[in-house]
Inverse folding.
């Protein structure tokens, strides 16, 4: 028997490489200036899913929500070995907070009739770690957070070692289950060269050049499915702005006031002067 | 979700394991007390476990007016589904306006699930909480006395204030160490409310084979001197300077998130919004640029020394002392000066 496995992934701005250009003058984020990457822990989630499939059979479907550009991480997933990729894209989903996002993604998982869902623990742009657990609640799936080691998947469910910061737990969760995966769980496999040659050309309908027939792409297995909120049978009261209980009161762009610090020379004399001052004021010594 | 209830209490989730409180609920009681007083309502705590009634005393002494106790043998160990059911039952029965939870491994598992069940909002890893007004321009509606949930976002380039105007309770998680520890008033009493939430075996979705806990080997919060390194060190080899300086000062070594992500130092040494918040007598930041997510975790330090090769690094803006230069040269010079300085002091 195989498992019907879904991986939820997110394309995120590379927050580690934020520079001055990343902020507009009005203090809002200039997403266009930030390189977009596969959220790192979602790659670990994908790797876990592929490992389960390789051991037990079944399929791995990667789902992401975002604009057509987000197909980049879906192509990446296909090149690494995912069987299928779906883009959930709809203007009405804009301004969704974690609760509304989890509702939309859970509708996609429902439609796919999954046994097992893997997500990264958290995305690096928000670090909230909320969407995975909220999807599990909406689906009625057993939630297991912080997978560090996949022990096995069997008749009783999925057995994992969870890292809870101040220790670990060895638990079995009944299926269907949603598992969030840590970056320490595994090393994501690289692209397979044959798959890379093929799937680098995969596109969703909105990315196709004029005159290219979607059906011809689909025949070659290169069409990335696109689902909108109607396809997911979403209730509009739970999506977008209306479905998001959290509102932004204000955003402050961080401009630190000029420092009023005492400067010391990077020399032995400077270091000695600093240390004697720290000793004098009883900060050290 | 529950209706907006201005008379509702401010609540703190009293996370405990094996009869011991985590530190964060006792810290949240200080902030909770402040918010409750400002709103003119009571401060409550939700205490869930098995045989934990005796722990209520500590919560009263730390400022809680009421303790909602869910005591059940089936709740001896934390599980997402059973604890979510217990918390949601309490929320529906008593309608608090605010629920604060520590952003621990348990809190970050429990809170999203509770918020999803209640269909209410949740803000993770807040670095400040205040009470304020929200004006919704689109509908020209003014909401008074909402919880401002304040957190850095987007790599620390912005600080966002989030509110939850209509779908309550207003929920937020806060990392350990962000709020000061509440003071205990010995003998202070409160009201114990026993809540029966009807947990059944069906609510236990996990089979727990083994639980292993280890005391944290790192005590960043208790350290008088913290020496932290960042990505500016360039490689793990150079990060040795951080350990050397920490050892020579009797301090604790730490790292920024970038340093942790690069594998220079383990995560339990991380200072910042998604790590530990520290308030040492001296904080030395070496090769740390000073993104707000890092400074959120150390800016309350009594003295801050920044060492960085980039004179424009933001870390200098929160520093009391600064040295701009090559880290690999400056740190050994500093160690030499400290050894010299200290020995002079000892001898004299």
């Amino acid at each position: 028997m195989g498992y019907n496995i879904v991986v939820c992934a997110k394309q995120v701005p590379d927050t580690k490489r934020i520079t001055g250009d990343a902020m507009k003058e009005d203090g809002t984020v200039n997403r266009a200036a930030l390189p977009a990457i596969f959220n790192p822990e979602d790659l670990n989630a994908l790797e876990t899913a592929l490992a389960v499939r390789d051991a037990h059979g079944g399929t791995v479907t990667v789902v992401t929500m975002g604009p057509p550009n987000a197909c980049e991480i879906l192509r990446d997933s296909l090149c690494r070995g995912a069987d299928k990729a779906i883009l959930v894209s709809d203007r009405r989903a804009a301004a969704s907070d974690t609760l509304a996002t989890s509702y939309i993604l859970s509708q996609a998982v429902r439609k796919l009739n999954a046994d097992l869902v893997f997500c990264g623990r958290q995305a690096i742009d928000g670090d909230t770690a909320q969407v995975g657990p909220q999807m599990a609640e909406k689906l009625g799936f057993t939630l297991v957070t912080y997978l560090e080691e996949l022990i096995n998947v069997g008749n009783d469910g999925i057995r994992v070692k969870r890292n809870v910061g101040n220790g670990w737990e060895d638990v079995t969760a009944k299926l269907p289950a949603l598992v969030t995966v840590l970056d320490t769980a595994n090393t994501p496999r690289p692209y397979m060269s044959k798959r890379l040659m093929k799937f680098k050309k995969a596109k969703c309908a909105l990315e196709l050049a004029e005159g290219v027939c979607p059906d011809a792409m689909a025949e070659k297995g290169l069409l990335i499915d696109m689902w909108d909120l109607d396809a997911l049978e979403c209730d509009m009261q739970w999506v977008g702005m209306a479905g998001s209980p959290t509102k932004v009161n204000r955003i402050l762009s961080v401009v630190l006031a000029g420092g009023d610090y005492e400067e010391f020379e990077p020399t032995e004399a400077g270091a000695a002067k600093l240390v004697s001052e720290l000793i004098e004021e009883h900060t050290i010594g | 979700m529950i209706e907006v209830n201005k008379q509702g209490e401010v609540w703190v989730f009293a996370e405990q394991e094996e009869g011991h409180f985590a530190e964060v609920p006792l810290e949240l009681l200080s902030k909770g007390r402040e918010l409750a007083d400002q709103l003119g309502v009571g401060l409550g705590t939700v205490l869930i476990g098995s045989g934990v009634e005796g722990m209520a005393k500590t919560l009263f002494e730390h400022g809680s007016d009421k303790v909602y106790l869910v005591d059940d043998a089936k709740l001896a160990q934390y599980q997402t589904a059973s604890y979510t059911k217990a918390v949601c039952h309490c929320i529906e029965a008593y309608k608090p306006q605010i629920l604060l939870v520590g952003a621990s491994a348990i809190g970050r598992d429990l809170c999203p699930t509770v918020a999803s069940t209640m269909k209410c909002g949740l803000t993770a890893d807040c670095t400040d909480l205040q009470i304020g007004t929200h004006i919704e321009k689109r509908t020209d509606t003014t909401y008074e006395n909402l919880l401002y949930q304040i957190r850095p976002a987007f790599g620390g380039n912005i600080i966002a204030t989030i509110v939850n105007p209509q779908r309550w309770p207003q929920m937020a998680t806060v990392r350990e160490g962000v709020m000061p520890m509440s003071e205990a008033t010995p003998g202070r009493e409160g009201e114990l409310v026993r809540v029966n939430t009807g947990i059944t075996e069906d609510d236990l979705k996990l089979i727990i084979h083994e639980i292993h806990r280890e005391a944290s080997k790192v005590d960043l919060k208790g350290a008088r001197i913290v020496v932290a390194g960042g990505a500016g060190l360039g490689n793990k080899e150079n990060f040795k300077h951080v350990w050397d300086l920490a050892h020579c000062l009797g301090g604790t070594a730490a790292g920024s998130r970038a340093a942790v992500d690069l594998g220079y130092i383990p995560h339990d040494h991380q200072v910042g919004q998604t790590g530990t918040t520290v308030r040492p007598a001296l904080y030395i930041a070496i090769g740390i640029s000073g993104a707000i997510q890092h400074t959120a975790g150390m800016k309350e330090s009594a003295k801050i020394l920044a060492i960085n090769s980039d004179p424009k690094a933001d870390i200098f803006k929160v520093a009391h002392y600064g040295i701009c230069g090559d880290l690999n040269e400056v740190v050994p010079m500093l160690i030499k000066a400290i050894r010299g300085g200290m020995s002079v002091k000892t001898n004299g």
Q: What stands out?
A: Chain A touches chain B through 82 residues (CB under 8 Å).
